[in-house]
Amino acid sequence: MAPEKLTRQAVIERALKIADTDGLPAVTVRRLAAELGVTPTALYWHVKNKNELFSALADHLLTALVADMDPSRPWHQRLRAMITTLVEQTRAHPYLSTLLPTIDKSAAEGYQRVTDTALGLLTEAGFTLQQADHVATYLLLGATTMVSCQPGGVGGDEKETAELRRQHRLDLERLPPGRYPHLAAFATTLSTPPDIDAYYSFGIDLLLSAVKTTAPNG
User: Fold this and answer.
1) Are residues 53 and 34 in the same domain?
2) pLDDT, tens digit (0-9, with 9 covering 90-100), for 129-153
3) Rounded mean pLDDT of 53-75?
4) If we measure between CA atoms, which residue out of 139, 199, 197, 191 comes closest to residue 169?
5) How much is the pTM?
6) Which CATH number covers residue 60?
7) Could you tell me if 124 and 203 lie in one domain?
8) What is the pLDDT of residue 85?
9) For residue 203, what are the domain limits?
10) Is residue 2 within 8 Å of residue 12, measured between CB atoms?
11) Whether residue 112 is found in the same domain as residue 162
12) Rounded CA gap, 87 and 82, in Å?
């Protein structure tokens, strides 16, 4: 790509592709420049450093959370749409959960917009701003942890996942059933693959039902 035709969006999209394929540590200025066919110096017209690049990546992924939001819908429906999209983005890009704590949030416009929107919805629900900040944090951590704790892991090989599930079942079956009756019963559920869609649907319901139940205007 000719340097004069290089755009910030092209840089972000290529960095995203590298991260999706080889993981976030593989995203370096040198590799990015090589894949785009430019010198590293050319990239600095669009991102000043790696930290700014990572902030831009986070912004790119978070933008979907507030895209096309219908302001006429009740607050809890808009919040559900945000959390559902956050889970979907984290499933598609698992490094998002490790990326967010590392970026300069004061310089990440997408992060600020998502946070401001979430605070607005939660204050509409009747929470104070301080409570809304806490709830937004719990939701962020809950959604991203839901993905990192997905049964069988995220993006794992199907055969490897099945073997890990089998080993887990055998480990539980070795426990004395009289002493651990519930673990023994749970072991029987590991004979078949988990319903991942049901896992996420239930997880999102669990998170949001707690918010709606405790919301003063719920």
Assistant:
1) no
2) 999 999 999 999 999 999 999 987 7
3) 90
4) 191
5) 0.88
6) 1.10.357.10
7) yes
8) 96
9) 48-151+196-214
10) no
11) no
12) 9
